[in-house]
């Protein structure tokens, strides 16, 4: 996926208290008496109170050392605020829909038969749900060229994604790059499947091979936890950026 920033991996924690406040442009994050800024030195301002609380919680949960690589919501906000790739809404949507051409759940194997059967049993229901939910044709293929996705299907997804704001679209693209699948991502964001299920389906072949041949335990567990964390953060970011109501109770007041 696209990595907009490469901040230092870790830094000594330099603040005691984290709080949020409402400014003219939205909700701000305060580290003691300092306002949080983006990598391009813009004021870190988010559109919803719920998102501000979630970001503040990321900063508050850091211990003696700030581990920037664990702060996925902060990174997504920085990307939305700075827009380092300078893309507009149309470009973001087209980039997301382009994943349909190489969507994980559309590429099938013929051999070994056990894996082919597993893909059919696990992926077909998600594809069928998406076809019904969006009234489109998607299909699957065992060809290296992949399925022939109709233009009308792509345009339907373009129209659907256009209903999201720019912030949410940044999150959607982030989730898609984690799962390598537009279909799994939309199923997750629409709450049809859980984060755990989406990650499992995106790693189906790898999980099959692990069950058959075993795995390097610590490496597999780390990769799986990291993927779940990124996918969960991206999904939460989309929901919080699409949230119109405010949170009544600030979680960090005590």
From TrEMBL:
<dbReference type="GO" id="GO:0033615">
    <property type="term" value="P:mitochondrial proton-transporting ATP synthase complex assembly"/>
</dbReference>
<comment type="subunit">
    <text>Interacts with ATP5F1B; involved in the assembly of the F1 component of the mitochondrial ATP synthase (ATPase). Interacts with FMC1.</text>
</comment>
<dbReference type="GO" id="GO:0005743">
    <property type="term" value="C:mitochondrial inner membrane"/>
</dbReference>
<protein>
    <recommendedName>
        <fullName>ATP synthase mitochondrial F1 complex assembly factor 2</fullName>
    </recommendedName>
</protein>
<keyword id="KW-0496">Mitochondrion</keyword>
<keyword id="KW-0143">Chaperone</keyword>
<dbReference type="Pfam" id="PF07542">
    <property type="entry name" value="ATP12"/>
</dbReference>
<keyword id="KW-0472">Membrane</keyword>
<dbReference type="InterPro" id="IPR023335">
    <property type="entry name" value="ATP12_ortho_dom_sf"/>
</dbReference>
<comment type="similarity">
    <text>Belongs to the ATP12 family.</text>
</comment>
<keyword id="KW-0999">Mitochondrion inner membrane</keyword>
<comment type="function">
    <text>Plays a role in the assembly of the F1 component of the mitochondrial ATP synthase (ATPase).</text>
</comment>
<dbReference type="InterPro" id="IPR042272">
    <property type="entry name" value="ATP12_ATP_synth-F1-assembly_N"/>
</dbReference>
<keyword id="KW-0809">Transit peptide</keyword>
<dbReference type="InterPro" id="IPR011419">
    <property type="entry name" value="ATP12_ATP_synth-F1-assembly"/>
</dbReference>
């Amino acid at each position: 996926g696209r990595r907009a920033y490469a901040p230092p991996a870790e830094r000594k924690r330099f603040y005691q208290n984290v709080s949020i406040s409402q400014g003219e442009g939205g909700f701000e994050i305060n580290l003691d008496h300092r306002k949080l800024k983006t990598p391009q030195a813009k004021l870190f301002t988010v559109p919803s109170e719920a998102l501000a609380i979630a970001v503040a919680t990321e900063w508050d949960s850091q211990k003696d050392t700030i581990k920037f690589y664990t702060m996925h919501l902060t990174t997504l906000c920085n990307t939305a605020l700075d827009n380092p790739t300078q893309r507009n809404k149309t470009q973001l949507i087209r980039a997301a829909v382009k994943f349909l051409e190489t969507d994980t759940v559309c590429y099938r194997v013929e051999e070994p038969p056990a894996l082919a059967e597993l893909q059919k049993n696990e992926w077909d229901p998600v594809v069928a749900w998406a076809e019904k939910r969006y009234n489109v044709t998607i299909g699957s293929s065992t060809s290296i060229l992949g399925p022939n996705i109709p233009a009308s299907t792509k345009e339907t997804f373009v129209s659907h994604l256009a209903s999201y704001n720019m912030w949410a679209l940044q999150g959607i693209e982030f989730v898609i790059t984690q799962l390598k699948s537009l279909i799994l991502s939309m199923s997750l964001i629409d709450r049809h499947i859980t984060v755990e299920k989406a990650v499992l389906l995106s790693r189906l072949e790898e999980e099959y091979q692990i069950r058959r041949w075993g795995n390097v335990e610590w490496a597999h567990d780390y990769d799986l936890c990291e993927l779940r964390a990124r996918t969960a953060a991206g999904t939460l970011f989309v929901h919080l950026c699409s949230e119109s109501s405010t949170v009544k109770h600030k979680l960090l007041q005590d």
